[in-house]
Design goal:
The structure is a single chain. The protein has ten helices and eleven strands. The protein has helices spanning 37-43, 69-79, 92-103, 125-134, 141-149, 157-173, 184-203, 237-249, 265-268, 270-282; strands spanning 2-4, 7-9, 11-14, 22-26, 48-52, 65-67, 85-90, 108-114, 207-209, 227-232, 254-258. By secondary structure, it is an alpha/beta fold. The radius of gyration is 18 Å and the shape is globular. The strands form three sheets. The protein has a seven-stranded mixed beta sheet with strand order 3-5-4-7-8-10-11, with helices on both faces. A two-stranded antiparallel ribbon has the order 1-2.
Length: 293
């Protein structure tokens, strides 16, 4: 554990005695640090690799009041004496990585953004409709409203599980695929992480997010770090659109599209994602800016 803003942040690290650089893994909003198991162990053969649970997630302390996740990220790096690192972010973890790269460019040697979010980007009406119809409808509307407001006397574990399964089916498998698109191991791992996310959101203290200002969505041209964008071609369309914005808006960004892959490629396609990350990182000098000469 490290203490950030008075809150315990759980982390794990591994790597050789003389690493080629430092890599920080930032988990998705529907997951926790466990989603990185394959990448954590594989990349630790060459790099110092750190994965941590964001405030309010996994084994870390509660998120309460105003929270700024990219500032927490930089504070975790400070606490672990990391001056500069490659940031690998999934979903909202990618959004926070971009914010950190804009807020403290000298501290970010590279970015890998996987099914990434983007702070300041407005989700489409179609995506929000899909979420209502395919995910929110899994719990009766009156109970869901009480859960979200923190006003329920009791949270039904069945409701938590139903919401987690619906969200995993829609996003992790993808709106055009069924549950059988994911292996039993991946399905259960994704549902369990997502179940804990909803359980904590509905039973824990209330919080709000503060993002970088001006928002990252209008500042992608400022990102100086070498960037890789990984997109699952079975992911929700609105999220794939963000991958397109990132690849087009960040100077020199490379894009990889993975067929038959949903929202959590590191979990669903671990070997392919690790191979892509290994190739990308080997072409970047993680101790200084820019490609290896």
């Amino acid at each position: 554990m490290v203490i950030v803003g008075g809150v315990e942040i759980a982390y794990e690290e591994a790597g050789p005695a003389a690493p080629a650089g430092t890599v920080v893994l930032l988990h998705a909003g529907v997951a926790d640090l466990r989603m990185w198991e394959h990448q954590f162990r594989a990349l630790a053969g060459r790099y110092r690799v750190i994965r941590y649970d964001r405030r309010g997630s996994g084994r870390s302390g509660d998120a309460e009041g105003e929270v700024c996740h990219h500032e927490d990220l930089l504070a975790v790096m400070d606490a672990l004496e990391v001056e500069r690192a490659a940031l690998i972010g999934s979903s909202m973890g990618g959004a926070y990585a971009v914010e950190a790269a804009l807020a403290a460019p000298a501290r970010v040697s590279a970015l890998a953004l996987i099914g990434s979010g983007l702070a300041g980007h407005a989700w489409s009406a179609d995506m929000l409709r899909q979420a209502r119809e395919r995910v929110h409808s899994s719990v009766p509307a009156d109970r869901l409203a009480r859960y979200r407001a923190g006003a329920a006397d009791r949270v039904d574990p069945g409701d938590v599980r139903a919401m987690a399964e619906a969200h995993t089916l829609w996003q992790v498998a993808g709106p055009g695929r069924g549950r059988d698109a994911l292996s039993a191991e991946v399905w259960e791992a994704a549902v369990e992480m997502c179940r804990l996310v909803f359980e904590r959101a509905w039973t824990g203290p209330r919080s709000s997010e503060r993002h970088l200002a001006p928002p990252a969505a209008g500042r992608l041209y400022e990102v100086a770090a070498p960037t890789l964008v990984i997109n699952g071609l079975s992911d929700v369309r609105g999220i794939q659109e963000v991958s397109g914005l990132l690849a087009a808006g960040i100077p020199g960004a490379r894009r990889i599209d993975l067929p038959e892959t949903g929202h959590l490629p590191p979990l669903e396609r671990p070997a392919e994602v690790t191979a892509a990350l290994t190739t990308f990182l080997s072409a970047v000098d993680l101790a200084s800016a820019g490609p290896v000469s």
